[in-house]
Amino acid sequence: MSDLDAYRSKAAAWLESMVPTYGKAARKGLSEADDLALARKYQKAKFDAGYAGINWPTEFGGQGKGHLEKVTFDTEEMKHGFPSFYFGISLGMPIPVLMQFGEDKAWVKERVLKALQGEEIWCQLFSEPAGGSDLAGLRTKAEPDGNGWKINGQKVWTSWAHYSDYGVIVVRTDPNVPKHKGLTYFWVDMKAPGVTVRPIKLVGGDSHVNEVFFDDVKIGDDHRMSPVGGGFAVAIATLMIERYVATDSAGFGPHLDLFVELAKDTELNGKPAIEDGRIRQQIARNYAMRSGLQSITARAMAMMQAGMTPGPEGSLNKLVAVRSRQKLSELAIDLQGSDGFTYDDHASQKEDWTSSWINAPTGRIAGGSDETLLNTIAEKILGLPQDHRPDKGVPFNQIPA
Amino acid sequence: MSILYDEGQQAIATESRRVLEARVSKEELLPLLETSGRYHEGYWTTAKEQGWTALALPEAYGGLDLGLIELGLIAHQAGRSLSGAPFLTSNFGAAKAIELYGSDDQKTKWLPGLASGETIGAVAFASGANALPARPALTLTGERLDGVMTGVAGGLAADIAVVFANGPGMPVLAVAELADVKRTAIATFDNSRLYADLEFAGTPAETLVTGGAAREAALHILALQAVITAHEQAGGAEAMMEIARDYAVTRRAFGQPIGAFQSIKHRIAEIYGLVELARANCIHAASREGQADFITAAAAARISATEAYDTASRDCVQIHGGIGVTWELGLHLHTRRARSLAIEQGNLLFWEDVLVDRLTGEAA
């Protein structure tokens, strides 16, 4: 057994032992507040068992292991429905950026340890109403204010902002230069005066994303995490931190086995639907697509294990998997016919076709829309030209709104 | 078997690409389409010289003892270059049938010739839409074959054929010499594949395996061939993607390269996705030879590679506009090959059924 296999089986055994306390059944029926409280305990248990900050430096309280161990653990963890998502953004991007760019190391270490133990949560304040795919088009501004800065503007789609203690934020500090050059990167205290968080209810009924308003929010210059005007580079570094993460060829929707079961159990024209050619074709093509993604991931892991750099094809995962999840979920509802109307907004997207279907559009937009991903593949991998960009090189305050 | 190519395997890919790019040209391939009964002999000579026919066969019979992964790498390059001879796949399939199911005498008799490429093998199982028919078109009585096999890839030039036939009350896998078999060349949209109808009339044949095991054996041989063909399809799809990309960065319209338009760039990015999924499934399938899930993996490779090649060739022509449908440019060589490979070794419908049968536990 390789070291990684040994690590996997030890992690799997530990995760298994956590299921009675923190698994799907234990969480059933909890209010979000109670679920979050349970999540904080689970995060602490992970920390105590040595599974928090797996690939982070030990000087900040991490485990000092490799990226492979981290992905291995995440892949095993994904199987059980633990409440780990509250910390996904926090530990995924803001905290690693803080470790890399935070100046006051003692303060940084304190934050990292509290985040790793589930005591503090960080959010990432990037998107704005007028700047989604175009990250450099941000309008929220920070102006010099005494020895520090004063922030005014609005962010949107900020995951878990309503539970966050701190956030990292990119704002415009100079509107007189082209858009990429006038941005600066800060951290903010989400409890500071002038910060207002307003949850947005999404189509699936949940409200984990928010609008965040900044009205004369004052921060010290020691909150700055990039050179003035150098925020875009840090923002991009944030987005690039973990190129290979635990993936799911089902697009974070139900496993294909569940569709096969449904097709076996459903009668269509007097026969099991599994005998219908249209259904069989969809199953076969979905299987081929998913097995392809799994092989890409397996190869990427093997390459990393061998000290090589994986190819760019890992970028296909979200694009291909979520689209197919959306269509397969539609078909699953079709297959249930008049039994397909029922909806339970607490049902799991991994197990319930209706929940999977109604939430699938989020997956095709968040973290880069299909169109953005296709542009990235076309430009970065295939060397096709950039889209026509009329605002290129134009000072931000001269771009027509 | 590892899913990462080692240095030796990478060298096979690089070298076979170099050789094929040097020896196969559009100018040689286009005329082959206009007559039936001709194939790209230069390619077959190259395949023999390079030892590709011997690659995946046992050393004891003149082979090189390598496997599906290595042969797949060469098939990928053959697909890229459109090398016009069907024998790499069918020769291998016929040889594997004899190696896996034949007697020592049969192996000694056939394998060295197949390994050197001096003997050309074909595999003839299909009957129309049925890649592995419940009632095969051939009947084996005693040691004699009767009946007609239609559309056998490479059938016009092959020396021997491994066939799936009705034996005495049970299916049988047998090998027959084709010297005295009446062959009719078929005029097709991809003439260099040498498709032929073979008319067996009391043709002597040797049994390899009979009964339920014969059907399983035939499916196994088809799956081995399907993995090779899938590599060829993935290679062809990759070539079409690159041709489309190269055209999109040079051809200009409305004052900019057409590749700057999302309707074009996204189309090519989508092809990239299909090519990479097909490639991943091919590598996976080749690495699963001998494992319980091999047929499943082969079916997945076949399905995604067929989709990749058809889509890539369709969209590549579309991106080119008018020039794309000219005889001279030759994109149609890929369009034709995408369709002929989609039918060889079982069509998409067949492999979709095989895959779902495996997933639902209804496999034979």
From TrEMBL, chain A:
InterPro entries hit by this protein: Acyl-CoA_Oxase/DH_mid-dom, Acyl-CoA_Oxase/DH_mid-dom_sf, AcylCo_DH-like_C, AcylCo_DH/oxidase_C, AcylCoA_DH/ox_N, AcylCoA_DH/ox_N_sf, AcylCoA_DH/oxidase_NM_dom_sf, Mycobact_Acyl-CoA_DH
Cofactor(s) required, per the database record: FAD
Location of the Acyl-CoA oxidase/dehydrogenase middle domain: 123-217
GO molecular function annotation: flavin adenine dinucleotide binding; oxidoreductase activity, acting on the CH-CH group of donors
Keywords, sorted A to Z: FAD, Flavoprotein, Oxidoreductase
One GO location term (cellular component): plasma membrane
Domain Acyl-CoA dehydrogenase/oxidase C-terminal span(s) in chain numbering: 229-381
Domain Acyl-CoA dehydrogenase/oxidase N-terminal: 40-116
Taxonomic superkingdom: Bacteria
Membership in a protein family: Belongs to the acyl-CoA dehydrogenase family.
Name by which UniProt lists this protein: Acyl-CoA dehydrogenase
TrEMBL record, chain B:
InterPro entries registered for this protein in UniProt: AcylCo_DH-like_C (IPR036250), AcylCo_DH/oxidase_C (IPR009075), AcylCoA_DH/ox_N (IPR013786), AcylCoA_DH/ox_N_sf (IPR037069), AcylCoA_DH/oxidase_NM_dom_sf (IPR009100)
Acyl-CoA dehydrogenase/oxidase N-terminal domain boundaries: 7-118
Top-level taxon: Bacteria
Entry keywords, A to Z: FAD, Flavoprotein, Oxidoreductase
Cofactor: FAD
Assigned protein family: Belongs to the acyl-CoA dehydrogenase family.
Protein name: Acyl-CoA dehydrogenase
UniProt lineage: Bacteria, Pseudomonadati, Pseudomonadota, Alphaproteobacteria, Sphingomonadales
